[in-house]
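User: Um, any thoughts?
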Amino acid sequence: MSGEIFVYWRVGPEAAPAAIAAARDFQAALQASHPGLAVRLYRRVDVARGQVTVMETYAAPDVVSEALLGRVREAAWCPAERHVEVFEALA
């Protein structure tokens, strides 16, 4: 499957530091087991909701394998519901 994986989730500000640290550890483990995998981590503070939205991205050098997608979907470390989507680049 071609494309990039995008994952977003929300946590309260008090839980954000630990959750973000866990996300970094998870991404490092995936990079170790999937050579060439590019990862990024973003944060948006949603003051109106009193939450922090975190976005994880995963770009494989060739294709997004079912094994990689499965590991991303099954990540058990996150304290919130994760929304996982795959997008294909158009340009």
